Amino acid sequence: MKTEFPDKYITLGLKIAYYRRKAGFTQEYFAELIGKSVSFVGQVEGTGTVRGVSLETLFKIAQVLKISPSKLLEED
């Protein structure tokens, strides 16, 4: 099945990477904080195409990064 919004997923991944780095977290430490694997974090940040990124996970990511979930989803 082809993804309908690939650019949106890539943008989401880039935003997560940006805010993670801004917080001073390594991928390893960030993965631990959000309860996911390092490969999950790498895939999300690199391509944004990991299937099954739940709303719960997005909220956890935002909580750990101390940002509003809307920061990850809003268009630039």
Structure description:
With 76 residues, this protein is mainly alpha-helical. The protein has helices at 6-23, 27-34, 38-46, 55-65, 69-73. The protein is globular.
Architecture blueprint of SSEs:
Layout: H1 6-23, H2 27-34, H3 38-46, H4 55-65, H5 69-73
Please tally the β strands and state the result: 0
User: CATH fold name, please?
Assistant: 434 Repressor (Amino-terminal Domain)
Q: For the report, how would you describe the main beta sheet?
A: none
The helix fraction, in percent, is 55-70%
Q: Can you identify the CATH superfamily?
A: lambda repressor-like DNA-binding domains
The radius of gyration computed from the alpha-carbon positions, rounded to a whole number of angstroms, is: 11 Å
* CATH A-level architecture: Orthogonal Bundle
User: What structural class should be given to the helix and strand makeup?
Assistant: mainly alpha
Give helix and strand order, one letter per element, not per position.
HHHHH
Shape: globular
How many domain modules? 1
Strand content: under 5%
For the record, the CATH class is Mainly Alpha
Number of discrete helical segments: 5
What's the pLDDT, averaged over the residues?
A: 86
